[in-house]
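PROTOCOL LOG
Step 1. Enter all chains and additional molecules of the complex.
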Amino acid sequence: MQGPWEEREGVLCYRTGGGVELYRLPVRLFPELDGYVYLVLADSHRILVDTGSGLPESQADLIRGFEVVRDRYRRPVGFEDLTAILITHGHIDHFGGLNFVRQRSAAPVFIHELDRRVLANFPERLITVAREIRGFLSHAGVSPQRQSVLLSMYLDMKTMFQSTPVEGCLDDGQRLFGFIEVHHTPGHCPGQICLRIDEILLTSDHILAHTTPHQAPERITRYTGLGHYLDSLRRIAALPGIALAFGGHEEPILDLYGRVAAIERFHRQRLERVLEICREPRTIAEISWALFGRQYGYGVLLALLEAGAHVEYLYDRGYLQVENLDQLEQDPNAPVRYRRL
Ligand SMILES: [Zn+2]
Ligand SMILES: [Zn+2]
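Step 2. Run joint prediction.
Step 3. Record the structure below.
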């Protein structure tokens, strides 16, 4: 893809109007997921934004990215030169490589306070969220056997990260190091942040060039959910003068405002579709099936969560009602059936 940047051996470099150098290092995160780590150079600041997943191929790509910046761009920056590590949100594909980086760098780690405990106590987050997911799956009409399979897949992540202390917080409206503006954009993740540097915005997983970022119901984790997400989209749309955006995955976004409008439209259409499906009483599992068809492996859980986020949004705002109140009164474990009002 062509744009107002340079690209050498897969590492893209963009210089902002204020003279900040941004390097985008490509990393393989998981077998089916690629993404980017960013290196920001300004005056004496050497800032790493995200760390990759921590899997061996992700670590190898990170090392290679630094080598390209050193050899092809003539900027000799090593892990030991980093002055700060910023984590854009508490998802493993963005922070899983933190232990690897910390073995090589004494730089302080920053994350939004709503995701701080993900880093500081990773098993706690996984185990407490798993409990909430179990409640959600039962509500959604997923059988107990299936619930156990899905939850064990989720808890498999437990061995992927060793908890680590956090030195600093990224707060909404903060001007970090005098040149990075922090915007808190909860929805995809509670502590999701976007970072503005001059005319560019690092959107992480809040806004991606092609994929509509994944949503889950707020009943599982506070500050997620479609309501927060759509509010956060509007907050970004109201920021003037963003010429270019870089996501945590996929290509740079040349028209950020157009992309925000397209994602909003996409969710409005999906909400309409859920209302359509709920002309007859439906469980979330049935709605997920009607929206996404058969899914496999972890995709089953992602589809249920996405459907659940849309149902929750509509129910909270009075567009859906619970159809089987009598049954729920008798049996607290019965799945909830929703019907369009
Ligand atoms: Zn994410
Ligand atoms: Zn991601």
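Step 4. Note key features.
Residues 35, 91, 93-94, 205, 248-249 surround zinc ion (ligand 2) (CB under 6 Å).
The first helix runs from residue 56 to 71.
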